[in-house]
Predict the structure.
Amino acid sequence: MDLFESRGCTMSDMSRRTFLWVTGGSSIALVTEPPRKLVNKLVNKLIPKVIPPENIRPGSWTVFATTCRECPAGCGMHLSHRDGRVTKAEGNPAHPVNRGALCPRGQSAPQGLYDPDRLRQVLYRSGGASRPSNWQDALSAISTRLISGGRAVILSSLQTGALAEVMTGFASAFRGKLLFHEAFNYEPMRAAHQELFGLPVVPHHDLENSDYILSFAADFLETWVSPVSYARQFADMHGFRQDDAQNRMVYVGPRLSMTASNADSFIQVPPGQERLVAATLLKLVIERGWQKNDLTPFRGALDGMLKGAGQVPAIPEATLLQVAQSFANARAPLALAGPSAAKGAVASDTALCAALLNYAVGAVGKTVDFSRPHALSRTAREAELAALLGSLGANDVLFVHDTNPAYSRNGAAAQLRRAGTVVYLGTMPDETAQMADWVLPIDSPLESWGEYEPEPGVRGLMQPGMGRIHDTRSAGDLFLKMAGLARRPLSRKGSAEPPADFASWLKAGWSAPGGEAAWAGALRTGGDWNTRPKSPAAPPALQAKGGLRFAAAGVTPLPKPAQAELWVWPSIMLYDGRLANRGWLQEAPDPVSFVVWGNWVDMNPRQAEALGIEEGEMVQISTATGSLRAPARITEEVGLQTVAVGLGQGHTALGKNAKGIGANAFVLLGGVNSGSTFAPCRIAKVPGGAGDRMTATAPSRNQLHRELLQAVPVSELRVMKPGEGDRLDLPLSKGHRPEEDMYPAHEHKKHRWGMAIDLQRCIGCGACAVACYAENNIPVIGKEMVRGGREMAWLRVPPYRMPGDRLRYAWLPLHCQHCDAAPCEPVCPVFAAVHNEEGLNAQIYNRCIGTRYCSNNCPYKVRRFNWLNVEWRKPLDLQLNPEVTVRTRGVMEKCTFCVQRIRQAEYRASRERRQLRDGEVVPACAQTCPTGVFTFGDLLDPNSRVSRLAATEPRRYQLLHELHTKPAVTFLRRVEVELG
Amino acid sequence: MSPASEDKNMKKWKTPLWAAVAAAFVVLLSFFAALVYLDQLYPVGLGPRQPIPFSHRVHAGVKRISCFMCHSEAHRSSRAGIPPLQTCILCHSRIIRTYPYIAKLRALAASNQPVIWARVNWLPEFVYFDHSMHIQRGIDCGHCHGDVSRMDRVSKARKFQMGFCIQCHRYNRATHDCFTCHR
């Protein structure tokens, strides 16, 4: 859309008499027409409920507890419901997995519900063209196929509980099979545990109580297994405590991912060689006798593998020795094996070595608990999937439920087509839906009943947060209905009667042990779990007795400069690509590259120079199975002869936002490469690329000596007492200094809101930024506008290079600092930027005339200008927060410290005739932060947590303190751990 | 002037009955018009026509039902809330069941159809007013909404413009923080 499209306007031939006649007439019309009628035309209807649902009150929030289904982690979620619609998703504070936090993907759940491109009606495809159909035709046609002997094969996203029971019953009723297809199935880890312990599972990892985490390319803060839970545990484990020794995390891998950047030391190795580092560490542990469990029988296999590999990564022996020693001697060490997307022999070997390391140092039964396997252990393995897809034939009715194999599995599309009938049950018109014969639109997880049990003992219930917005059905209901129509009605185990619908099937399972009260309790809390800390079960016995099979071949030599090892990583925003149509996630910058809307190829500068490739130029990456084109990003984040590509982009369907953005890296995978984690590939420079330029909103990692993001060595902190540290100029009357201040001090009578940001806890995930979009009606403006510097994010979390460390980034969450001597305020000619009674820098939209002086004068560059009137594509407008004004063109906006939440908390306290409690006001960013970076509170209250942090925490500093803006945000420095 | 001519004149000025009636009608009409114009007939104005002619005068005035009986959210929420049909049926399932409009109401409730009322009071969407905080401070509903106990068809008693709000806030020494209403 061209913003400044000029409308052709010519002088007409209107005579003076006609002109007067027209203007006179319209003036009379305006005078006689009362303005109220004009208003009435806009909003003139009041529609009350007939019988109001219980606990839903006009003008008040109602919260529904449900379970997030954006990835298999299964976090608890609260849906904020207002006047019939869900506007926000927040973490369920009582849920043991996420404890109130959500990642960016979970935050974007309402955008999935209101996605304008969602499937709205039944589609039938014949002869290549799809046409609308109806439910009756669809269900009767499908059940007729089943009656006439069709085999029912179901490929579904990972499900547990009622829906899994229904689908299993359905598949077996029609002689078929049910497989849970997830793009990331952690097969290497499961295979390793199968081989060692006879348990093919993803175990429960206890990061919280670990004091030394060793990650072999496992991006556990981004996408690996259960990232929100791990992020919280990692922050608790890795955060700074004055009295405790600083816990460590070491990351071994080829790419400086967000997780790698959070490690205390990042050991960069070429792809595929993480396993060699793991094996070397294991060997050192055995050689030096540091092991707690005997591993000598495996020495032969280890030596054989290391010898066979031929080339050992160039890592100083001392480093390896030091890591091995710290790991083995840690109180509760933990080794994690990745990467998420890998499936081959190399990844299996890495997992095997990591599992042996865990076993050797006694982590199994301590930080690794096999008695609580993750639900991901139930996903289909490669061999099962290949066999099933290979067996599809004309007699099969293939049901694909909520998974997209045509996109995320190379070559699956052709195999799916071999099935006689393909029925797609999903919410989005994705690549699999494009090739299905029948497309059945199902409810979004936010509209449906269901359950999900991420690990034993944590049962999450899903309940609809609102009524359906389209003509959709629940997947469970559809399977029950089709089974009934095909004359094989399904019923729960132990009951002869087929249930009325899926919800009653679900309810029967929940009220079986505890009756109606158990069901009501689960509806209120969002599920059923035991909150008591569990002690891990006794370690399983070792099954493998010496004869370990290391399957991977030796390191593949790459003699030509255009050759490289491929490294594929799932994006924290888009996961396996299912979320790619959500504007918030496309516009949310990648934590490391800060690129929005698209993907890119990471390449080492030396290789790029050898090939004559420059930053931003299009390159083609080809493996044996496929190729893609994306702009090159030249960076040392990857080593020599390594290229890294993110997954999740490059859709050919799915919706308007996703289609044609970036390139699909799944096409590079799928080949058999026993010597590489993914595959060897070729790089070629290709012409073009003007249409797919990388768009980053933080172009430099360099701090340019401005010391924005500061760090302090642990040794220095240890000798500091509470209260020592920088002198802060707090935004209070005591911070007013006549010799420096131009303006008189502000008087705050009731509150002075402030925030503390603990940089040591910030992992850079960007959940806060997405939560801010959701809470504050921030528009998504698209790639072109972002490239023009017009992004609207009120809160950004840019990465900066840590001083003195080339390969370590840290993140600086930055929003309005709500300064006491705010540079934005005196320059506003119309008093739209004003200091409010509680210390906030208020931006009054209806007063703003858009001079943008305030933005120019803001040293933190946190103000955003509305360059255009953004239209929310229907029904995305239903997500808008009714407590926040939707801004129009020509208005400046910025962070308000979520003033709507402050007001609501104040009003609630006032209605209950009490004082506000510390911690009662929680801005959206602080609410969703998995790691507890933000502390919000009243600086006037000396006992509030934020006041105490600002007064006593030795790590405190203020951003650009020298400007004497007296910001209300206190940053707490990152901690530098000296290795040794 | 002779008596004859006087007689003749009188005859000439004799008004026909129809004209007298018409004149009386016009006088009466202008009297009513004056009443309406001077807000004497509807001292509180006449609001928009509603689908069911619910009378606040009868309910709040004659029957002295509290505002909170129907606008139950006013003391605990930002909005006062338009009562659900259930609230009407609470009484009208027992009393005045057959009056045509109430029969219509009952029929709507029976078929789960809402009544679509015409809006009377309106605030722009960038203004955030909170009923509960004003009720709590003891501000009478009538201060902003006028004397609804005298209104059959509720009308807008005040123009909700910023001056009206600020005047009251100034008088009561209430907050002048822009962020209270605009955010």
